[in-house]
Amino acid sequence: MKELSKYNIDIYGLEDKQYAYEMESGDAFFQELEQDLIEFGHFKTHVVLNKSATMIQLNFHTVGSVTLTCDRSLEPFEEPIDQDDRIILKFGDHNEELTDEIEIINRNTNRINVARYIFDFIALALPVKKIHPDLRDEEEEIDPLDEADGILVYSSEDVETEETEEDEKIDPRWEALKKLKGEN
C-alpha cells in the first residue's frame, strides 16, 4: 500500500482555488493494484485540482507506456499512452458514483486517492486488440463471415431504369383505361 499512498491528496482545509500535482510511477503501481490487465509500465501524471465550495474537479494528463502482450504473436511490446481525462467530485451526504465522470463524496472526506482513477484512464486508453506495432501494418486477415453474400436490401442507385422497363410492358387493358381517363 506504500506505492498507492503516493496518490493521496489531502483535500481537508484546501482553499477554493487551483492546485497542481505531479505523480510518477512504474511497475510497482500496477503490481500493487488488484488487476490482471497490466503488469509493467511507466508513466507520469499531471493532476490539476480545481476546488470550489460544492465540488472538486480533477483534470488528469497521463503520458507514458505500458508493456502488453500481442494477441497474435504473444510477443511483449510497449504501447504508448498520452491521455487527458476529467473527474468531478461533488460534495454530498454519502459516496455514490453518478456517471463515469461524476461522483458524490462525503463532505467530511479528508483525503482522496487518485490511483484508481489513473489506472482506469490508462486501461481505457489501451486498444481492444493488442497487436504488436510490427504486425499492425500488415493487411488484416479477411474474415469470411464479414463478407456474407446476401440479398441487396437497399441501394442508393436510381431505380428509374427499372420503372421505365415496367412502363413499356403495361397490360393493354390498362392502356385502354388510360385513354378513357384522358391520359395519353
Strand adjacency order, main sheet:
2-3-4-5-7-6
Strand content: 35-45%
Shape: elongated
Classification by helices and strands:
alpha+beta
Query: H/E element string?
Result: HEEHEEEEEEHHHH
Which stretches are poorly predicted, pLDDT < 50 over at least 5 residues? none
Question: What is the arithmetic mean of pLDDT?
Answer: 82
Q: State the assembly state of the protein chains.
A: single chain
Radius of gyration: 30 Å
Q: Considering DSSP H and I runs of 4 or more, what fraction of the residues is helical?
A: 10-25%
How many helices? 6
- Distance N to C terminus: 91 Å
Number of strands: 8
Number of domains: 1
Structure description:
This protein has helices at 2-5, 27-32, 115-125, 133-136, 160-168, 172-181, and strands at residues 8-10, 18-25, 40-51, 55-69, 76-92, 96-97, 102-106, 111-113. The protein is an alpha+beta fold and 184 residues long. The chain has one domain. It has a 6-stranded mixed β-sheet. β3 and β4 (55-69) form a beta hairpin. It is elongated. The N and C termini lie far apart (91 Å). The mean pLDDT is 82.
Write the layout of secondary structure elements.
Blueprint: H1 2-5, E1 8-10, E2 18-25, H2 27-32, E3 40-51, E4 55-69, E5 76-92, E6 96-97, E7 102-106, E8 111-113, H3 115-125, H4 133-136, H5 160-168, H6 172-181
Parallel strand pairs: 5-7
Antiparallel strand pairs: 1-8, 2-3, 3-4, 4-5, 6-7
InterPro entries: YceD
Pfam family, one: YceD
Summarize the structure.
The chain is an alpha+beta fold and 184 residues long.
